[in-house]
Specification:
Elements: E1 2-7, E2 10-13, E3 18-26, E4 34-39, E5 46-51, E6 57-59, E7 67-72, E8 77-82, E9 91-97, E10 100-101, E11 105-110
Parallel strand pairs: 2-11
Antiparallel strand pairs: 1-3, 3-8, 4-5, 4-9, 5-6, 7-8, 9-10, 9-11
Length: 111
């Protein structure tokens, strides 16, 4: 059984940066496809970024140019570097890989 554990969330002022990590434990996981989602209060969960088998990445329009997703297969970890954070980025961020979800990490951006 795979467990995904996110970390790196917190409280930051607008314009600041955070780096989220998602580490896999338990059974082997490839991270050939992985994604970050977020869910703000009262809103649907939305896709923020995804990384594909070949390493290509896709981003939601709202975060393009500010967020960067990467992975380290040897460490079974994916990352989300978030720069230029805005109050509207406030949400619980979830990692997803191979039908597994992490428990989420809270990101709060103050104005």
């Amino acid at each position: 059984q795979v467990q995904l554990v996110e970390s790196g969330g917190g409280l930051v002022q607008a314009g600041g940066s955070l780096r989220l990590s998602c580490a896999a434990s338990g059974s082997w996981i490839s991270f050939n496809y992985a994604a970050w989602y977020r869910q703000a209060p009262g809103k649907r969960r939305e896709l923020v970024a995804e990384i594909l088998r070949g390493g290509n990445t896709n981003y939601a329009d709202s975060v393009k140019g500010r967020f960067t997703m990467s992975r380290d297969n040897a460490k079974k970890t994916v990352f989300l570097q978030m720069n230029g954070l805005k109050p509207e980025d406030t949400a619980v961020y979830y990692c997803y890989a191979e039908t597994n979800w992490g428990q989420g990490t809270q990101v709060t951006v103050s104005s």
